[in-house]
Amino acid sequence: xxxxxxxxxxxxxxxxxxxxxxxxxxxxxxxxxxxxxxxxxxxxxxxxxxxxxxxxxxxxxxxxxxxxxxxxxxxxxxxxxxxxxxxxxxxxxxxxxxxxxxxxxxxxxxxxxxxxxxxxxxxxxxxxxxxxxxxxxxxxxxxxxxxxxxxxxxxxxxxxxxxxxxxxxxxxxxxxxxxxxxxxxxxxxxxxxxxxxxxxxxxxxxxxxxxxxxxxxxxxxxxxxxxxxxxxxxxxxxxxxxxxxxxxxxxxxxxxxxxxxxxxxxxxxxxxxxxxxxxxxxxxxxxxxxxxxxxxxxxxxxxxxxxxxxxxxxxxxxxxxxxxxxxxxxxxxxxxxxxxxxxxxxxxxxxxxxxxxxxxxxxxxxxxxxxxxxxxxxxxxxxxxxxxxxxxxxxxxxxxxxxxxxxxxxxxxxxxxxxxxxxxxxx
Amino acid sequence: xxxxxxxxxxxxxxxxxxxxxxxxxxxxxxxxxxxxxxxxxxxxxxxxxxxxxxxxxxxxxxxxxxxxxxxxxxxxxxxxxxxxxxxxxxxxxxxxxxxxxxxxxxxxxxxxxxxxxxxxxxxxxxxxxxxxxxxxxxxxxxxxxxxxxxxxxxxxxxxxxxxxxxxxxxxxxxxxxxxxxxxxxxxxxxxxxxxxxxxxxxxxxxxxxxxxxxxxxxxxxxxxxxxxxxxxxxxxxxxxxxxxxxxxxxxxxxxxxxxxxxxxxxxxxxxxxxxxxxxxxxxxxxxxxxxxxxxxxxxxxxxxxxxxxxxxxxxxxxxxxxxxxxxxxxxxxxxxxxxxxxxxxxxxxxxxxxxxxxxxxxxxxxxxxxxxxxxxxxxxxxxxxxxxxxxxxxxxxxxxxxxxxxxxxxxxxxxx
Lengths: 427, 416
Fold this sequence. Notes:
The structure holds 2 protein chains of 2 kinds. Chain A is mainly α.
C-alpha cells in the first residue's frame, strides 16, 4: 500500500509544471519512430527541414493510401474505418491507463475490449439489418439474430455491466469508476461516429470522400497560409494557429470542395448508393443518378457576372451542398481539433500515440473528422434523403391488420387532400 | 498562491482511504415527525420514519396514476431533472469545481439539448395529428435532428472556448461527468416515457416490481438474514435476495391480474386532437384477454384443477419480475460502489430517512431499459405513428406508389 501511495504522490504536477508524469508500463510518446530509410535519406538537412520533409512524405503516403482504398471499394473502406476506430479507441484508453496508473486493475482491460465489442455488435447489427435486409431474411440463423438483435445486444452489455460490478475491489472503487466512465465516453465518441461514417458511405461514396477531403484540405491549407502569412494568433489553446491561416484555409477549402465535387459527380461509382446485390453476393454501385448529380443551369448573380463573364453556369446541385460541407469543415471542424488539443494539454501528452512518424497517433489525424462525420450524417438525414419507401413497406407488412387499415386510410385521406387521388376514387 | 489544479491532482489520484469525507448529511426530518416519534428509541424511530415516508411516496404514486398519463410524464421529467442535479452536484463537490467558469450553465444547457432531442424524436410521433395542423411545428419536426445537433454544437464550441489554462483537466472531467450522467438519466427516463405510452401497465408493473423487491428483500433479510450477499452492500443477504425474488414474482403475477382488466391501464396512450387530451381507449390486445392454460401435472395436485384462466401478460410479468429481482439489484450495487468511491452516504437529502431521489431510483434505470428492449423485441412491432409520420414526409409520387402497393396487399389479404 505504501508503494502505491508513493507512486501516486509523484503524480501531482500541476498544469504549469512540465515534469513527466508517467511511470507505468505503456510507452511514453517521445521516441523517434521514423524509419531508418527516411533517416538516412534526410541525414544531411537541418532538423527543421528534416521534420518538414518527414511530415510531407508521410502526408503523401497517407493520401496515396487513401486513394488506393477508394479504388478497392466499399467493403475495404468499411474494414479500414473499423480498424481506425479500434486503433483510436485503443489510443484513448491507453491514455486513461497512463493517467490513472490503472494498467493492473483487475479485469479492466478485458472489460474495455468487451464493451467495445458489444457496442460494435449493436451498431453493426442495426446497419446490417437495414442494408442487407433480403440476405438476412433468407438465412435462418441471421433472421433470428436480427429479429431479437436489440435484446441480444442488451443482454451482452448487461453481462459486462454485472462483471464490472462484481469486479469492484475495495481500495480501488474510485479508479474503477473513473475507468468505467472513461471507457463509456470514449465509446460514445469513437464508435458512434465511425458508424455514422459508414452510414454516409452507404449513401454514396461521394458523401464519404468529400467531407474527409475537405477536413484534410483545411488542415493543410490553414497550415500553409499560416506558414506564409500567419501573424495574429487564433486561440490560446493552439498557439500555432492564426487568423490568417483560418480564413485562408476557409476560402481555399470551399474552392477545393467545389472542384472536387464537380469531378466526382460525373462518376456513378461515387454518386450511387452502395447496395448489396443478392445474386452476386457483392456490393454494387450502379443506379440512375439522382437529381443532385445531374447538371443544371444556374443564373449567376449580377455581382459575379462581370467578374466571370458568363450569364449562366452549369453546375451539379451537389456542389451547392459541398459549399455547406466545406464551410462546416473549415469553421466548426477546427473546434474538434481544439478540443483534442485541450485534452492533450489537460493530460500533459504531446501526441495521442506514436503510430505515424511526424504526425503522432491515428487519433491526432482524425480529431477533426469526428464532428464532421456527425454533421454530414445529420445533414443527409435532414436535407437530402427522405425515408426509404421500400423499407416503409416492409415495416408496414409487420403491423397488425387494424393498424394497417388505419394507416392506409390516413394515407388515402392525405392523398385525396393533396388532389393526387381525386380521379382514381374507385374500390 | 495555492495551485488549485495541483491540489486537485492530489485528490484525484490518492488512494480511496485518503480522500476526506464529505460532511455528513444534515437531518432534514420534518419537525412534526420528530415530535410524534420523540418517545421511541433511535432504532425504531428510524424505522418509523422510513416506513412513513415509504407510505407517503406510494400514496403520491397512486395519486399521480389517478391523475393520468400527462401528469406521469411530468413526474418522470421532474425526477430526471432532480437525479441529474444530484449527480452533477456530487461532481462539483468531488472536484471543488463549483466556481469553474461557465460550467454550471453548460451542464444545464446540455441537459436541455438532449431532452429537446429525445422529446422531439419520441413524443412528437404521438402528436402527429396535432403537429400536422401547425406550420411552424412542421418545420421544427422536419429539421429536428439538424436543429438539435446545432444546439448541441453550440454548447460544445462554448465549452472549447471556455477552457482556461489552469483548469483544463478539471473542465474535461466535468465535461465527461456531465455526459455520462446524461447518458444514464436522460436516456432511461425517455425509455420510461416510451414504455408509458405503450400502456400504463408497462410502466406500473416494472416499477412496482422493483419497489416490491426492495421492500420484501429488506423484510426477508430483517427476519431471516444470515449469509452476506456481496461485499459492496454488507446489509444485503442471500436469504433476502431469494425471498425477495419469489415474493416479487408472486406480487407481479397478482398485480398484473388486477391491472389487466382495466382499459385505462392496458391501452396505449393516444393523443386525441379534437379534445386535446390523452385517451386510453381501445380494443384490448390479445395479451390482455383471458385464455385457458393447461396446468402442468406437477401443479395440478396443488391447485386442484386442470386448467387455469390467465392473461398472457401474466407470463410476461414473470419475466419482468425475474429481471427486477435478479439483475435490478446490480443497479443498486453500482450505485453503492459509486457512493463508496466518492465517500458519500447518500446522493442527497431530499427525502428524510431515504436520501436523495437517485437513491430511490438507482435500481429503476436498468429496469426501464430492459422493459423497453423487451417490448420492442417480443411484444410490439414497429410503431405505427412513426411509420405514418415517415410516410407523410415522402415525395408525392413515392406516396402514390406506396399507396398502390399497400392497397394491393390489403386487398390480397381480404382486409379491404
